[in-house]
Amino acid sequence: MVQPLSVYGPVKMAITVDDLFLWPDVAHQNGFTPGSCSASLIRAFAANGVSDVYAFSASFALDNDPGLKSVLDDWCAAGHHVGGHTHYHTSLNWLDAKRYIQDIDASHVLIEPWVAKAPSRYFRFAMDMLGDTRSKTEAVMTHLAQTGFMHAPISYWFYDTQFVFPYDRAVRLGSEEDAAWLRDKFVETAVSCLRNQVAASERNLGRCPVHISLIHNSAIAADTYDRVLAAYAEAGVEFVTLEEAMRDPANLIVAPGANPHFRNLTQRWAEVLGVEVEGTPPSVLDELDAIAPIEGWDSVTLFSKALAGMARATGAEPVLADLAP
Questions:
Q1: Global pTM?
Q2: Which homologous superfamily does the CATH classification assign to the domain defined by 11-318?
Q3: Which segments in the chain show pLDDT lower than 70?
């Protein structure tokens, strides 16, 4: 019997997806595509009773391949929704507020046909990073209010992007043993991180808030997320819409101060309140770059390549250390 996640009963959680097109200069590999991966996620949602999932994607890919608009069409046709996520996926840390807002607006012009179909107009900061100064955060939040968008945070994640490149390598090398190990660890890590972050959120607030989760549109998610959703349900998750999650004040109120680090909402509140978030980041991350190694395909090299693409497009000065788990 699986130990319940919370003493308060079932944990309500909205599922959200980031980065249907992944990141600048770092695309899907090994025959996986944005469309094939998102189709797999759509099937996983249907099989596990998950509806009205918002996808937050940087829209840069539509510049070079307008045919990718079909990915957004198919997403909405399946009953899911689209939100804003900037055009080039650059952290607010690395730009001034004016340039970041320009990047938001460039994206929103492109994705408006799909955003208009959604019941709510949501925006998610790139990397869920709200900026290294409070003045930047406030400037962007003001612009969102003026343009009719609501900030949709993330309160739980399990660092699924750290599995993306190891899985690509394992598939490229035809190492099914490594790929199977990664899929199993993906599921285990999702549940263990959820357990630890739910516990931290309860210590933060004295109650169990409605959580907002994150998954990326990657190959390993395409091959594994059906199992993750089933494991969530077995552990006591009740899937709800993002609209229901956003009715919880815990998801509406921005944690005090500025936090320039790669932290979700639960972690930001924990740092303000002096609460430990156990097992976050999970220790398995230290093992991943040793799996199915290929020269030049390690996480540092490929994430640095993505950041270089963001910098080239926006004039940003990325700092890889800001993204440390």
A1: 0.97
A2: Glycoside hydrolase/deacetylase (3.20.20.370)
A3: 1
